[in-house]
Recover the amino acids of this structure.
């Protein structure tokens, strides 16, 4: 238990919060302490508190298994339910059909969020938080404008893939290992995951959305400034930097690099970030 506690304490702060809430809300829902009907995201529920229809539930790839276990709640009236965009980010239904996919999401969340937070954004916590907020807001806006057509009621899948995509673009030439011993450059990893979800899960729309959101951030904040030698098109608000100021390097400068700089340097062979031995170039599978 001491090792687990030490591992948890060493985790970078935003990855720790994200992982903790992504464990807490699904487990509370799994044991019946919270109803999934008050955690998912849909335009009607956010604004008017209308009951999610049985037709919408039946068309969603995940929710039908839960809807059979719960009776619908009564409609208490017209109120704003502004917590839903937040809870929809952390909640994911744990069922026999979805449990493995949920664990894979947690693995990607921890692995790639930590790599970004302790690598590219190591001394720029406000920049990393802004990236998370930007990606989340893009997903929420999409869900409120056109999300009804795609039944985007859970944000974990696209949010995790958006962060993974940013890491892959910053480490394009790093060779990663995937299932069945396949190896390829990191730049192809998001598309490989998209293909697997299309083949195995019959979906892919949420993963594609995550790729698009991740690319939007990467282009506006990093790629465009690099190509045109100009200021980024989106910048971290000053209020975030007030609460999460840059961390001074022992040599005296702040941050490993700013927007438009070079991608993170890979650790020496056999040494990963945070004291864990991940192995060089083996991100997903074994050696």
């Amino acid at each position: 238990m001491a090792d687990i506690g030490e591992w948890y304490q060493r985790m970078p702060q935003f990855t720790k919060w994200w992982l903790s809430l992504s464990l807490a809300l699904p487990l509370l829902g799994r044991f019946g302490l919270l109803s999934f009907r008050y955690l998912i995201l849909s335009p009607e529920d956010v604004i008017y508190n209308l009951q999610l229809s049985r037709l919408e539930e039946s068309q969603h790839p995940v929710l039908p298994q839960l809807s059979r276990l719960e009776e619908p709640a009564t409609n208490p009236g017209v109120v704003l339910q502004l917590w839903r965009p937040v809870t929809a980010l952390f909640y994911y239904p744990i069922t026999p059909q979805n449990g493995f996919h949920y664990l894979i999401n947690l693995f990607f969340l921890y692995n790639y969020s930590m790599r970004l937070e302790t690598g590219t954004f190591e001394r720029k916590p406000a920049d990393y938080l802004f990236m998370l907020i930007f990606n989340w807001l893009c997903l929420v806006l999409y869900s409120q404008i056109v999300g009804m057509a795609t039944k985007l009621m859970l944000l974990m899948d696209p949010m995790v893939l958006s962060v993974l995509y940013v890491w892959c673009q910053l480490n394009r030439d790093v060779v990663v290992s995937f299932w069945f011993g396949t190896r390829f450059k990191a730049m192809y990893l998001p598309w490989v995951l998209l293909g697997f979800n299309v083949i195995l899960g019959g979906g892919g729309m949420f993963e594609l959305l995550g790729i698009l959101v991740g690319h939007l951030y990467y282009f506006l904040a990093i790629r465009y400034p690099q190509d045109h030698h100009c200021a980024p098109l989106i910048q971290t608000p000053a209020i975030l930097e007030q609460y999460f100021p840059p961390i001074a390097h022992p040599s005296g400068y702040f941050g490993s690099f700013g927007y438009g700089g070079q991608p993170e340097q890979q650790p020496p062979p056999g040494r990963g970030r945070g004291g864990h031995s991940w192995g060089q170039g083996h991100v997903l599978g074994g050696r």
Residues 266 and 280 are 8 Å apart (CA to CA). The radius of gyration is 20 Å. The chain has a mean pLDDT of 79.
